[in-house]
Amino acid sequence: MTDDSVEKIETVSEKKKRKRRGIYLLPNLFTTAALFSGFYAIVAANNERFEAAAIAIFVAMIMDGLDGRVARLTNTQSAFGAEYDSLADVISFGLAPALVMYEWSLVSLGKPGWLAAFFYTATAALRLARFNTQVGKVNKAHFQGLPSPAAAAVMLGFVWLCADYNIEGKTLVVALGAFFITILIGFLMVSTVRYRSFKDLNLRGRVRFVTILFVVMIFVLISIDPPQVLFLVFSLYAASGPIWTLLQKRKRRAARFLTMGGEENEVPPLNQETSSQRQD
């Protein structure tokens, strides 16, 4: 082997090492945009611009939904990107919604208010940590617990809806409602309730023309009244998990009842024979 060939091999190996040490720019740009939107929401809430803060969280949701799909489409998935995405989610969908809700309403409740905000932040972090440990171990078609972006959408959808209707968040009734929503959404995130992930949808396949019309109708409905429609949609999604779980439990109980009933129907002939022997 000549010296030139040895140098070429070393050069190729060095290039591979440099390539491995680098990070992919495109998907991480979307993750950074989601992180920026979450940070901007906190700044806007501190300046009492709660409508802008709510919109920023929804922008963060869009960016968060795009980074993973862009990484898969461009084959630029990496361990760094996955960890960066999780850390950004803690800020954008854990800390930011809690602080916006606190500044808008929960601050009027005193200590219970900031404890509720911390509870939401902690449950969001716990939910993301559990999700990271279950990657590749659970069915991709369902999430265990309410996803943190959807949880943030319910929280900030409520803030946006009230701000749009000029409802003061620091009144007692509204503050109690905000407290209840914050605690409930936090519990749903760390629960074992299953939610549809929609990751099994084939976006590359052909669809019927009616499907495109349905998508257009969704955009039309959202544009009519964004805060009201978005809050309603994500509230229904948050409620779909417990409803679906209860229906599944009811089906399993019915199946067990039918199974036990079938076994009991097989037993009576023996009992009847025994009773007839006693009568004899």
The first-level CATH class name: Mainly Alpha
Shape call: globular
Helix content: over 70%
Number of domain units:
1
Task: Write the element-wise H/E pattern from the N-terminal end onward.
Answer: HHHHHEHHEHHH
Radius of gyration: 26 Å
Spatially, the strands of the biggest sheet line up as: 1-2
Number of E-state strands: 2
Average pLDDT for all residues = 85
CATH superfamily, by name, is: CDP-alcohol phosphotransferase transmembrane (TM) domain
Instruction: Tell me the span between the first and last alpha carbons.
Output: 103 Å
> What kind of sheet is the major sheet?
2 strands, antiparallel
Extract low-pLDDT stretches: 272-280
Key terms for this structure?
280 residues, mainly alpha, Four Helix Bundle (Hemerythrin (Met), subunit A), globular, disordered C terminus
How would you describe this structure to a colleague?
With 280 residues, the protein is an all-alpha fold. It has a single domain, classed as Four Helix Bundle (Hemerythrin (Met), subunit A), CATH 1.20.120.1760. Helix content is 78%, strand content 2%. The chain contains ten helices and two strands, in the order H-H-H-H-H-E-H-H-E-H-H-H. It has a two-stranded antiparallel sheet with strand order 1-2. Helix 4 packs antiparallel against helix 5 and helix 6 packs antiparallel against helix 7. It is globular. The termini are far apart.
